[in-house]
Amino acid sequence: MSRSFLLWNSGRRIWDSTSYDRFIGGSGVIVYRINPAVEGLSNLYGQTGVYVFRPQPGQTGYSQMADSVYEAYLSKEKGRTTIGKSDLSAGLSDGALTFSDGTNSGIVISEVGSAEGSQITLKVDFPKVSDSAKWTDCGFASVAGNSKNAWNQIAMTLCGQKPYVLTYTKDDAALTLYSCEQARGKKLYQQKISENYGNEVKLCAYNGLFYFAYADAAGIEIEKLDASCSRVTEKQTIAGAADFDMQAGADGVYLVYTQNNTTAYARCFKAGSLSATTNLGSYYTTAGTNHFAGQPKLLSIGSSMYASIRNTGTMAVHTFCLDANGNHKEVSDAATKGSTYGMATDGKNLYVATCSEGILVNRYDGKAWHCSKMKDGTISDVVPVCRQGTLFVLTSGAIQGQPICTGMMWQMTNLRRKESHSIRILHRRRSVRRMERCMFRICVGQTRRLSSRKRA
What we know:
Elements: E1 5-11, E2 28-34, E3 50-52, E4 108-110, E5 119-126, E6 135-137, E7 153-159, E8 162-169, E9 174-179, E10 186-192, E11 201-206, E12 209-216, E13 219-225, E14 232-239, E15 244-248, E16 252-259, E17 263-270, E18 277-285, E19 293-301, E20 304-311, E21 317-322, E22 329-330, E23 340-345, E24 350-364, E25 369-387, E26 390-397, E27 409-412, E28 419-426, E29 438-443, E30 446-450
Antiparallel strand pairs: 1-2, 1-29, 2-3, 4-5, 5-28, 6-27, 7-8, 8-9, 9-10, 11-12, 12-13, 13-14, 15-16, 16-17, 17-18, 19-20, 20-21, 21-22, 23-24, 24-25, 25-26, 26-27, 29-30
């Protein structure tokens, strides 16, 4: 599953047999679709890395030949001043600006101005969709199967931009690592443990190697796999620790955990070595109250490390920005509550997914929190993860014996609220050999200049 994006550029046309623009019939605005999943953005061998939106059947300028790209430009002089469809059910043949998977972006470009001057203006409308329309069931098949007395635990991570899942089932008393790139899981590694020790499992990847952890009678057992996922190369035990989480950071593998069900601690295994640890101290406690602290989480966003903990009495999720010197700053949102929760990031935003009677996804942009309701129903576990800017949520049902992952992986579509933007694009001066072009990627709240690419 790949994520594509749209961009547009403006320019004046001058005939040049060596120019990338020689197949465009005039001056104006051109809209592209970029699929970064295609290596080198190539259009060879049936791939489409870069697509130029052009007139479709029934529209002025359409041609069954490849030269329909000749009519791709928009301008007041051309008489083509609008492109795109706001109806999300519309496709490419309807004139929609679609993503690489054929779904409509809902973006509409209109009121394209004159291309005669040194600048050109246009209007961009982004779609408004309901929260439920943002989510698509990925149809991920069961990776654990039915179990009469299932005590199923799941963990999820990315390695090399591919998703992996670690599962535990009480009946099998086994930890199993799966690759989940395709519609079904591929088993990579399995390890038998005591049936009473897999009540919590975690998985992360650092420098291409997998680390998994689980709770046993002594505390927390952390193990490191070799590159072929065939054997354990290192082990570490955190004595007396209970609830915990584990994540890979820029400089090592981080761990947060609770002791005495009241106090949360953090530590780091430098450079991924389980024998080298740095204690980061405590960041939350309920000592002196009638409440317990549990479900600690840890997440790295850029140079910031975020740790969280749930107060089991109030169900509130407390989130902190950790500091290597122990100066931990709380950035919690009062609305973030649930019987369980998970955290993920797209590299900029912090997502906290909570579940009780349904699933809520709360997004922290570094300044404020934003809430999105994903699904109603009874959920026992929720694991969010981001891939290439797209948020996925893996859920497990609360009913005893329900298979893990059956129809329960969800994808959040990157659609924005209904907005209109008037945009002015300045023409770039042309070189002798070819016209210089300026492309802009449609980003949330900004435009970003990109390098030029050959049209197809």
